[in-house]
Specification:
57% helix, 4-stranded mixed sheet
């Protein structure tokens, strides 16, 4: 997994979100300001900051543009090497992603045993979505990984609540201090904390033999409170680590949020910058975003988008073992205590994510393959009556996942499973960060230089990179008369998926001759 992520990180140009996070991290490092990107709390960007500090880029603290321009200015207009800076910014996230693999191993081992733990680790380490987003300087994998870590620690609290509940609260706080989408996990983990303390008290302490149940209920509620208080403390600590005076001077307007949402934001026990970031998130939710699913372009969101996208982007073997394992932890008596811990957090997070307005990719549900890997261990480790071959069959399925993952190397971002044509076919059914997030601009420059030197190029690129930096000097065909557009028409697959008007006419009157990284198509016209 480390080899796959580092290799991917070295070859990919900045994706759409990364420059903003890297610029925010650089600003934290040099000026200690809560300035850019308030819609995401600072902890994940503080992790990125560790790599930025080692890269030691030149940073222009006097730059006054918005967060998107700040990222471009840092990478391309300040004398820095964007290849080197992005690699250093990504490395801390790669290390963190590997550490979450150890959590998967430990969690599955404690629930099912050694064989299950190793199988879960293999499924996690070979998950294309986890590899793809774990190799980027983004926030989706760390937020999901911290939720998984908190769940594991609450599970361990069934035996030692005083030790593990504060640690679970710290991990939960880390998730909430990385992405606000982790907030729905807070009541879920508090409920599981009550369950863990209840179990830790034993039959006598619970009053199962005539004792006073209140003597268990109060410590259980206190355990849930510990988880919540520690989580809130970690969020405050993340903001204080950036600026001990908690100054917040956003570069963009913070929208006013009315109604129930506004009242809930006001009640959050977090710094003002966090609450204003929530308002920005709600403002983004009100925007009429476009989506793309199975060849259909639409405005708004589809409630079934994430389940459908996960069906495309998750290895078939992981889907099968994860589903079977989810059934097993409910059906098998010795595994049943783990069922709420393995099933409830991802179910609630997915249900909430399905209500979102931005159908941009499975990265919003990257917790799914993590929890599926742990659940799948129940199949590998099970002793099935009348089916001694089941364990061996599960091992074969793990090998199938490994083969599919290795075949996708190094194009993990556009991965889709065999049922949907593999990485080369993903752009026909999904778009945006599922396929084309601007990551292949460097590969495009290499391809044009090696195969199409001297030809006229027209470019429609979707991403945060600057084509001219990589030696690509190409006009936008949408800004020229149709009859003038001849030669190579290079289009990002997300732009092609939603093409309308002149761009659609240009693509229809061209023939595809090449593709770059399964995210950019080269046409000849």
């Amino acid at each position: 997994m480390a080899v796959a992520m580092v290799t991917t990180a070295v070859r990919q140009t900045p994706t759409i979100d990364e420059p903003v996070y890297v610029a925010s991290a650089a600003d934290y490092l040099r000026t200690h300001r809560l300035l850019h990107n308030p819609e995401h709390p600072p902890l994940g960007k503080l992790v990125i900051m560790a790599g930025v500090a080692l890269a030691d880029p030149h940073y222009d603290a006097s730059f006054t543009g918005d967060q998107g321009r700040a990222g471009r200015h840092l990478l391309y207009e300040s004398g820095n090497d964007p290849w080197r800076l992005m690699l250093w910014a990504r490395l801390p996230m790669i290390v963190l992603t590997l550490l979450f693999g150890l959590v998967v191993l430990a969690f599955a081992h404690e629930v099912t045993g050694t064989a299950g733990g190793l199988a879960a680790l293999a499924l996690y380490a070979l998950s294309p979505d986890v590899i793809a987003h774990g190799s980027l300087a983004t926030l989706d994998v760390p937020a999901a990984g911290f939720v998984l870590t908190s769940t594991w620690l609450v599970w361990r609290a069934r035996h030692r609540p005083r030790t593990y509940l504060p640690l679970a609260g710290a991990a939960l706080g880390a998730a909430v201090a990385t992405k606000m989408s982790a907030l729905p996990a807070v009541p879920v983990l508090m409920l599981l904390a009550v369950l863990s303390v209840w179990h830790a008290r034993g039959p006598e302490g619970r009053g199962d033999h005539g004792g006073d149940r209140r003597r268990t209920l109060l410590p259980a509620l206190a355990g849930a409170a510990v988880v919540a208080v520690v989580a809130v403390t970690v969020v405050w600590a993340a903001y204080l680590a950036v600026d001990p005076r908690l100054r917040f001077t956003p570069t963009e307007q913070v929208p006013v949020v009315h109604g129930l949402r506004g009242r809930l934001v006001d009640l959050l026990p977090f710094p003002r910058a966090y609450r204003d970031g929530m308002r920005v998130q709600f403002g983004l939710e009100n925007y009429p975003w476009q989506g793309y699913l199975f060849g259909r372009v639409y405005t708004g969101s589809l409630w079934y988008y994430l389940p459908a996208a996960l069906l495309v982007k998750t290895p078939l073997g992981l889907l099968a073992l994860g589903a079977a394992g989810s059934v097993a932890v409910v059906a098998v008596r010795r595994l049943r205590p783990a069922a709420p811990y393995l099933l409830l957090p991802p179910a609630v997070l997915l249900a909430v994510a399905m209500t979102g307005a931005r159908d941009f990719g499975t990265r919003y549900a990257v917790f799914a393959p993590m929890f599926l890997a742990v659940a799948a261990a129940a199949v590998v480790a099970g002793r099935w009556r009348g089916a001694p071959w089941a364990r061996w069959a599960a091992g074969v399925v793990v090998l199938w996942v490994a083969v599919g993952s290795l075949r996708a190397f190094p194009y993990y971002l556009p991965y889709s499973n065999e049922a949907f044509g593999g990485p080369a076919g993903t752009h026909r059914v999904l778009h945006d960060s599922n396929v084309d997030w601007g990551q292949d601009l460097g590969r495009l420059a290499d391809r044009l230089g090696s195969r199409y030197r001297g030809e006229r190029i027209w470019l429609v690129y979707k991403g945060s990179g600057v084509p001219s930096y990589y030696g690509i000097h190409a006009p936008d065909p949408r800004e020229a008369p149709v009859d003038d557009v001849h030669g190579l028409l290079v289009v990002s697959d997300s732009a092609a998926a939603k093409a309308r008007g002149q761009l659609a006419a240009l693509i229809d009157s061209s023939r595809p001759i090449d593709d770059v990284g399964h995210s950019i198509t080269i046409y000849r016209r």
